[in-house]
Amino acid sequence: MRKKILFLAGMMACCTLAGAQEISKTWVADKGNGTYQNPVLHADYSDPDICVVGEDFYMTASSFNCIPGIPILHSNDLVNWSLVNYALPVQEPKEFFDKAQHGKGVWAPSIRFHKGEFYTYWGDPDYGIYMIKTKDPKGKWSKPVLVKAGKGMIDATPLWDEDGKVYLIHAYAGSRSGVNSILVISELNTEGTEVISDPVMVFDGNDGKNHTVEGPKLYKRNGYYYIFAPAGGVATGWQLVLRSKNIYGPYESKIVMAQGKTNINGPHQGGWVDTHTGESWFVHFQDKGAYGRVIHLNPMTWVNDWPVIGVDKDKDGCGEPVTTYKKPNVGKTYPVATPPESDEFITRHLGLQWQWHANKQDTYGFTTDLGYIRLYAGSLSKEFVNFWEVPNLLMQKFPAEEFTATTKLTFTAKQDGEQAGLIVMGWDYSYLSIRKAGDKFILQQAVCKDAEQQNPEQVKELARIPVEYLKMPGVADNEWKTVYLQVKVRKGAVCSFAYSPDGKKYTTVGDAFTARQGKWIGAKVGVFCVTPNEGNRGWADVDWFRVNKK
Q1: Bigger pLDDT: 121 or 5?
Q2: Which string of DSSP letters, residue by residue, matches 44-105?
Q3: Residue 266 contacts by C-beta under 8 Å, 6 or more apart in sequence?
């Protein structure tokens, strides 16, 4: 513990000498000269939406099955973002989401501010449209209210009109409803807690031009109702905007941003916001495969009551996304901020970068005042094939195109087959772990391809590690070992693992592995502890998890 305190003091000194930035930041959008680079968040905050209250911008994003869910990010300048909260600590129905339900759960939430309260709506494709609210986005949010039950309803956004009526727009998931590319509007009650009218179709993208229309955001400006909706598919789509003087249409349509001649594929799906200085901006995603859907910021202008997003070089009313651009004019200069990455586990609260693959159970792990988090070995099912089923994976998003993640953990085993390690998880996954086998620990690498298809892991034993013993009268000895595990991620999401017995010299071990995205999410990196057995379980004490550029 003393060494950790000294390390932290050294980190603080380094930060002071560097001026403002922590040494662990792997991607910084603010270039420090009045400009920024895209993406402003090189991490998987997919399907973003945004609102502004005074000088504060708040953004949320899809979280699917990962818990805590519905991240809340804060910024004062739209470039420097901090992760400040999660609005959904437990996903309902609880029993269903206590298991790893890949790709299910929270799809494309919206965030709005109305009469002193923040509202978030989202569609769960299997259960319906939910709403939560709060007066403090950094505090506790209300429990979810099922606004409308049913299958296939996704990507919900409200609008409070001047006449007191409240509307809700949403799309449909073809995988659940049998129809897609359709946008509908219904009326909500005054409280926004219940749909009180039948849906009215306002746009059908099955026109041969705008397939896969989804993710609608509903606004009103200068007497026009606007629907901002992505079309064309996640990886290759474009941004469509519809407008009408009547909430139910008919709507005119116009493509207002597309890839054009840039290398930014599929720039679309996000939210529009204005600064208090009168500028308009649009946040959206770009699909980058294993890295997930990263967040871009683009300027937005208005021409003849049509928005133009990005830079319209040929003046055709359709913009192209920018790579670098001048920062928004918000009247002030704010310090560099990024979501957290490294964690020393020195507080009673788990760092906001961490999510589980399902609702957290207390026995997955406990924070402590002792400088580590203790992860108890989760029992694998009797039908275990691969880690696709495992809910107690403690993971975070890839934070940059290139980074190194290193962890120090002490593994204490009770039974053969128990293991703890460092994992890169997605549809394909790989991990480096130590596993108890008799009176030895085995250092091993596992690789699994197409995990969702129930393909088995391929495991390679790399080394045998002597164990240490804690004698306990009347019960089985504790067999334990402290190890340092590392993964380097390079361009193309190519991962190489390394091992060290002392944290000083690392030896590359195993085979290179190319990470792959998960089901609607990017690849994630983190730690785990599992056992194939019932009964007395071992544990892993994770002393720290450090992420840097090296």
Answers
A1: 121
A2: ---S-EEEEETTEEEEE---BT-BSEEEEEEESSSSS-EEEEEEESSPSSHHHHTS--TT-S
A3: 232, 233, 234, 235, 236, 237, 238, 259, 286, 287
**DSSP one-letter string for 121-173:** EEEETTTEEEEEEES-TTSPPPPPEEEEE-SSEEEEEEEE-TTS-EEEEEEE-
Q: For the sheet containing 217-221, what is the strand order?
A: 217-221, 224-231, 238-244, 252-257
CA distances from 422 to 164, 211, 437, 488, 544 (A): 53, 40, 19, 12, 12
Phi, psi of 390, rounded to the nearest 5 degrees? -80, 120
Give the list of residues 6+ apart from residue 90 with CB closer than 8 angstroms, or none: 67, 97, 359
- Return the bridge partners of 286, or none: 294
Q: Which residue is catalytic, options 49, 214, 428, 479?
A: 214
Closest CA to 120 of 74, 80, 168: 168
Residue pair 45/71 in contact by the 8 Å Cβ criterion: yes
Q: Name the more confident of 5 and 231.
A: 231
Question: For residues 24 and 120, what is the distance between their CA atoms, to the nearest angstrom?
Answer: 32
Is 47 annotated as catalytic?
Answer: yes
pLDDT, tens digit, 9 for 90 and up, residues 425-484? 999 999 999 999 998 999 999 999 999 999 999 999 999 998 888 766 665 678 899 999
Is 136 noted as a catalytic residue in this protein? no
State the sign of the Cα–Cα–Cα–Cα dihedral 45, 308, 32, 331. Answer: negative
Q: Which of 44, 47, 428, 543 is catalytic?
A: 47
Q: Are 44 and 294 in contact (CB under 8 A)?
A: yes
In 233-292, DSSP assigns E strands to 238-244, 252-257, 268-274, 280-287
Burial class (CB in 10 A: 0-12, 13-18, 19+), 19: exposed
